[in-house]
Amino acid sequence: MDEREQRYYHSLYEVAAALNSARTPEDVLNAIVQNTAEASGAKGCALMLLTPDKSLLLHTAAYGLSDRYVRKGPVSADKSIAQALEGRPVAVLNAVEDDRIQYQKQAREEGIASILSVPVLLRGEAIGVMRVYTAQPRHFTDADMYFVGAVANLGAIALENARLYDSAKKDYEELRLDLAEWRAALGYEWMAEESVLPAKE
User: Fold this and answer.
1) b/e sequence 116-135, b meaning 16+ C-beta within 10 Å
2) CATH topology for 3-165?
3) How does pLDDT run across 2-51, given as a tens digit for each residue?
4) What is the side-by-side order of every strand in the sheet holding 114-122?
5) Residue 148 in contact with residue 36, Cβ under 8 Å?
6) Contacts for 112 with CB less than 8 Å, ≥ 6 apart
7) What pTM was estimated for this model as a whole?
8) In terms of Cα–Cα distance, which of 43, 44, 73 is closest to 57?
9) Out of 20, 106, 159, 190, which residue is the most buried by the measure of CB atoms under 10 Å away?
């Protein structure tokens, strides 16, 4: 196992630990993009999710990229490395000249040379992409693609956990309100009386 593969192994452990922690979903996603960039020796990393109509990609978490680049404009799902949304990784060696890059001028100004884009899949469906940006031209290896793909899948799990948590929290709040209404229907005096009566032996 070479040094980069060791970094990948360690980073996957860190991402899994973050996923299993009590951090907020936002913190987990930020940890994911930071770990990915650092482990791959890249300039930056971003996780983008599809809008409900699947026409645009929205930056959800980013690391190592300027606000100007992140907010450069709407990222079209059809124009910006669209093949990644078909379920396979796409490597772009020259980001400032490749027609698959929607914002070539901004990539040049940001100092981006190469981009690896992998799908974020949830139950077999692409819900977004994770992208790794390098400052120097790079021929991405299979190990690079497998690592970023694995992290992207962990990102999808983090998003699903957040959705399930929000749903469970909403269900709990609705149940709590239902119980409060049910108790109120029985009468406040009954509730107060029951709360001070000693337990019968």
Assistant:
1) bbbbbbbeeebbbbbbbbbe
2) Beta-Lactamase (3.30.450)
3) 777 788 878 888 887 877 775 777 888 898 999 999 999 999 999 998 89
4) 75-76, 56-63, 44-50, 125-134, 114-122, 90-92
5) yes
6) 43, 69, 95, 96, 133, 134, 135
7) 0.77
8) 73
9) 159
